Amino acid sequence: MPIDYSKWNNLELSDDSDVEVHPNIERGTFIRLRQQKIRQDRDSRKQQLVALEAEIPMNKKLITRINELRAQIDKDTTLEFGKRLLEWSQKTKEQENFINDFQQAIKDGREFRQLTLDEMLDGLIYRVQQEIVELKRDNKQSSDIKADVLKIIDKHVTNLKNREPEALKKIEEIKKEMRLHLSVDDVSKEGFSKSIITKDVDGKKIQKTKTKTIEVLNPGVTMKDISKENIKESEQELKEDEILVNDDDVDSLDMDPDSKEFGKIQSLEKTREYIINNVSIMSRKKSDQIMAHAFELQMEGKEELAKLHVRQSLVINYVMQMGPNGMPAFFNKITIPNSPGNAMFFNDVEKQYKHISERCKILIKEQQESAETESIQLQTDDPNNVIRIYVPSESNPEDADKLAIFKQLPTHFQDALKAGTLDAVNESLAKVTGPEAEDILAKCGSGGFLIVDEEIIVENE
């Protein structure tokens, strides 16, 4: 059976032997330039394909948002429509600056971040206002302006709908072009892969000990006392070495200043710039610090900030896994909406945050149950000691300050103090939680209501 080599027909190589080179150009230089052009064209086709595939679902969402806006405008009364135009005019300067920055980035060839639906809608509103101004109608009525706005919005919706078949046609052309310029990766696959990880046999650290040797004039003479001293010194040095090993294994998760700053960055673009300017943030320790702080923030109820710290911690992990040259590719993938890289990363963020959230709920519940069951009881060193309880008198002007503190106590504890026995006080304390009991005893100390001749022992039950 003859072998079919047709799949190699469109394989694009930079160093074909039959390539014609101009006599005045060195063959090696020509092949390198050809290779560079092939790679640039290949990357350009891939980028165009990714952008067009992302554009179609984005336009559909944008059309939905525009139709919702159109329906709201259509229902507006004359007064409501006037307020809407006033709100639009107040945002004109801000929208103009944003559009100018976006257009300047395109002219300079700089990469601009992916626009959100809100930003796209604001841009549409800005263009609607510009087109309304260009109409230059005299004595315009509100109803006429409203009709013009709806007409302009309909025109933009039609343009977006017409864009989909154009994008699909362009996608098919790019795929066809890619099939005509195959690379080795397109026609081959990985046969097998093998990874070898070398581990310690026992997984323990080798501890070094020092032995002190004393040179003597008569080496044949045994010196028992010196020998014992050597053994003691070796044992002491071994203990010191063990202490040093234990100290080195302890890693503090206290937040470093750069970890605090990196954890609070909202924008992915600014995150990228921070990593470029502060390479030291790329470490497992920094990632663990930020993730631990996310746990603390979740316990404090700061959910949005906790989720942001989870994202920043995972950014460090992903970039470190992709290697020193993988950061541009990582940020390019996660900033494209609905792309596989974007979905994988943010699904991981949601998974990690959900785990932290569930764990915090369990801990908070345990703390609440512990606070409900904890109580404080008082007892003295000697059961025969007499407890002295002082209750301020309402008729005594000198007790006015103490009476104010006394009235801040719970009613049942006021009655227990009036009863004047330690059992009554403990019975009242058993009705409240530990923190509440501590607050009551603190007020008793401020007012001098509870005094025992000997030391009072506070027990937590």
From TrEMBL:
Kindly list the biological process annotations in GO that this record carries.
protein folding; protein stabilization
Q: What is its main location?
A: cytoplasm
What is the protein name stated in its UniProt record? Answer: Hsp90 chaperone protein kinase-targeting subunit
Listed A to Z, the keywords are: Chaperone, Cytoplasm
Annotated ranges, domain Cdc37 C-terminal? 389-461
SUPFAM superfamilies in the record: Hsp90 co-chaperone CDC37
Q: Which PANTHER family match?
A: CDC37-RELATED, HSP90 CO-CHAPERONE CDC37
Annotated family: Belongs to the CDC37 family.
Which Pfam families is this protein grouped with? CDC37_C, CDC37_M, CDC37_N
The UniProt GO MF terms for this protein read: heat shock protein binding; protein kinase binding; protein-folding chaperone binding; unfolded protein binding
Stretches assigned to the Cdc37 N-terminal domain: 2-195
Boundaries of each Cdc37 Hsp90 binding domain copy? 188-374
Chaperone among the record's keywords?
yes
Kindly list the places in or outside the cell where this protein is found, as annotated in its UniProt entry.
Answer: Cytoplasm
Key word Ribosomal protein present: no
A cellular component term (GO) from this record? cytoplasm
Q: Which residues form a coiled coil?
A: none
The residues that cross the membrane are none
